[in-house]
Automatic annotation (TrEMBL):
Binding site for substrate: Y105
Name of the protein described by the UniProt record: tRNA pseudouridine synthase A
Active site: D47
Residues making up the signal peptide according to the UniProt record: none
GO molecular function ontology, one term from the record: tRNA pseudouridine(38-40) synthase activity
Record CDD domains: PseudoU_synth_EcTruA
Keywords carried by this UniProt record: Isomerase, tRNA processing
Source organism of the structure: Paenibacillus nuruki
EC number(s) reported in the record: 5.4.99.12
Family: Belongs to the tRNA pseudouridine synthase TruA family.
PANTHER family associated with the record: PSEUDOURIDYLATE SYNTHASE (PTHR11142), TRNA PSEUDOURIDINE SYNTHASE-LIKE 1 (PTHR11142:SF0)
Keyword DNA-binding tagged: no
Reaction equations catalysed: uridine(38/39/40) in tRNA = pseudouridine(38/39/40) in tRNA
NCBIfam families: hisT_truA
Length: 254
C-alpha cells in the first residue's frame, strides 16, 4: 500500500510506546477490517514531524477484501491527515524496504521575507538573503557513491555509511514572491538515492543553508564528505520541512 501523511502531529512512522505514530494508526485501522492487529513493514522510517507522499508499506493477510477496496475502507478509519492512496497484491518475496531501489526526499525552504501562514508547518522559513546559485552548486557535489559519515547522525547504527546519490536538484517557485521586495521564492530540494542514513537529508540541508549564508564555499562539500567526520558538516535542519517524496521499485514506482 501507498500512504500520504502530514507528519505534524505524529512521532514519526515507526511504532512507539505512546502509540502516536503513522504505523500505529495504520495497524489499528487494518485490525478493524481483518479482526487482528497486523505487523506492517514500511519502506523507511521518517522522524517526528516529517511528511510523506508515497510512503510504501506491506503486510500479510488472508483477508478476501479486494485490493482496490482497501484505500476507501482504511481512509474511513484513519485520521484525516493520513490517506492511503493505493493498494495492490504483491509476491511473498516483496519487501517494502529491502525491495526498494531508490528513494526520493524533498526539503522545502521558504526564502521569502514572511512565512506562509498556510504551509508554515511544511517549510523552513529563512527570511535572510541566500545565495541560491551557490546552494545549487553545492548540491551537485553530493551526487555519486560516497561514505556519508559526515552527514549521518552520530547515533547511526548502520554498519556501512556508503550510499549512492543518483540525483540532486533545486527547483525555485516564484509564484508567491512580491515584486520589489527581498523575497527569493520557495526552494524545493529533491534528493534521490539508494538509501539514506539517520538524519542524512536534514544534515545535508543544514549544511546547504550555511553555504547559502556564505559560511562555506560550494566546493567545500567534497572535503566534508572525505573527512568522514560529523563535526565537519552543518547543523541538522528542522524536520517539518522534509517530505518523503517517493519510493522506486523495479516492479513499479510510487
Amino acid at each position: 500500500m501507498t500512504v500520504n501523511y502530514d507528519g505534524t502531529r505524529y512521532n514519526g512512522f515507526q511504532t512507539q510506546p505512546d502509540g502516536n505514530t503513522i504505523q500505529d494508526h495504520l495497524e489499528k485501522a487494518i485490525a478493524t477490517i481483518i479482526g487482528e492487529k497486523p505487523k506492517i513493514h514500511g519502506s523507511g522510517r521518517t522522524d517526528a514531524g516529517v511528511h510523506a507522499i508515497g510512503q510504501v508499506f506491506h503486510f500479510l493477510t488472508e483477508s478476501t477484501v479486494p485490493a482496490e477496496r482497501w484505500p476507501l475502507a482504511l481512509n474511513g478509519r484513519l485520521p484525516k491527515d493520513i490517506i492511503v492512496t493505493n493498494a495492490r497484491e504483491v509476491h511473498l518475496d516483496f519487501h517494502s524496504r529491502r525491495s526498494a531501489k531508490r528513494k526520493t526526499y524533498r526539503y522545502t525552504i521558504n526564502a521569502n521575507q514572511y512565512p506562509d501562514v498556510f504551509l508554515r508547518h511544511m517549510q523552513l522559513h529563512h527570511p535572510g538573503k541566500l545565495n541560491i546559485e551557490a546552494m545549487r552548486e553545492a548540491l551537485s557535489h553530493f551526487i555519486g557513491t560516497h561514505d556519508f559519515t559526515t552527514f549521518a547522525s552520530k547515533h547511526s547504527e548502520k554498519q556501512s555509511h556508503i550510499r549512492t546519490i543518483y540525483e540532486a536538484r533545486l527547483e525555485v517557485d516564484y509564484s508567491m514572491t512580491r515584486p520589489d521586495t527581498r523575497d527569493q521564492g520557495i526552494l524545493h530540494f529533491y534528493i534521490t538515492g539508494s538509501g539514506f542514513l539517520q538524519h542524512m537529508v536534514r544534515i545535508i540541508m543544514g549544511t546547504l543553508v550555511q553555504v547559502g549564508e556564505g559560511k562555506h564555499a560550494p566546493d567545500a562539500i567534497s572535503n566534508m564528505i572525505a573527512a568522514e567526520d560529523r563535526s565537519e558538516a552543518g547543523p541538522t535542519a528542522i524536520s517539518k520541512a522534509l517530505t518523503m517524496w517517493g519510493v522506486h521499485y523495479e516492479e513499479f514506482n510510487t
